[in-house]
Amino acid sequence: MNKLYTSTFTLLVALLLSACASSVHIRALAPAAVPMPANLQSVATANRIIPESRRDKFFDVLEGAFTGEGIGVDRAGADECVNVVGQALANNSYRFKVTQAQLQLLGRSREFFLPPLAPRYVQDLCRRTQVDGLVVLEAFDSDMLLTHTNGTRTVKDKEGKEYQVPTVHVEMVMKIVSGFRTYGAAQGFVLDQARQEDQLVFAGNGDNYPAALRQLPPPAECIRRVAQRAGDGYARRIAPSYVDFDRDYFPTAKKDALMKQAAVRADAGDWAGAETLWQQSARNLHPKIAGRAFYNLAVASEVRGDLPGAIDWARKAAFTCNNSQARQYLRVLNDRVQAQAVVQEQLKSVPLN
């Protein structure tokens, strides 16, 4: 997904923002980073960071108290991470059938990644849960970093006189390092293993340090939010998932009233009506007007899911009318066609409903 929607799309947006004020929201499936075998049709999720020994439980409590994150917050964060990976696989993709069972497995130690589960144990769990594989959270650790900077802000007294008062800006960086494994029931082997790092920054402001701290969410809530990102990220790694993005289009063109009328229809969701008007503008003899109309017709085709049609219109805008934005858009569309082919390959084993 990153390869397809970063550099070229960012450049496209930067170019269009100077000339466009209208956009449309599009949702599409992006391929998984790691394809799973065709015989893996159903999965259960599992949490394997539950401490096995009293010593490890003691160290978990000690760590939570010492760091200020709170006692038991890593356990709660891990549970949330497993919940989200299951929800994301079930709701944001249709690659797998996800069972409601969330297995709780003993095994956490001071090591970050434990040795893989024994193949026979995996096969037994899969047989009992009636699934083809397991998605297991096998490592989870949070780290909190607090920084602050002193500053001032301007206030006015009753007479309107301005003066400076001290302020404090606090930032909390909450980082989570997680480790997932996906096992297949056929042989009980590891199909994928990933170590992930996710973080979010939370900020607060106040007249002094304690006041600024009070503006931050509790550490447990910060861990929960980052854990959600980690779970969603791993789901996208192993299953094609929906991504959201925007496409800008030209709302106007000088000396062509039809372009403005079409944009009004597109903004209202009447893309068929907008296309009819853009097709009329595309016959304009002025290349700039025709180029913008061709470009908008490419966007309209993409909105309908017609990528070949979108490419045809974008080519006309780029090469017939020398529309520079269309050349960038054409690269994005070609990337989408390649991604769509990968998605179709990854989903070919999924039974049709």
TrEMBL record:
Matches recorded under Pfam families: DUF6340
Superkingdom of the organism of origin: Bacteria
PROSITE patterns for this protein: PROKAR_LIPOPROTEIN
InterPro entries reported for this sequence: DUF6340, TPR-like_helical_dom_sf
Gene3D superfamilies associated with the record: Tetratricopeptide repeat domain (1.25.40.10)
Keywords attached to this entry: Signal
Signal peptide stretch: 1-21
Protein name, entry field: Tetratricopeptide repeat protein
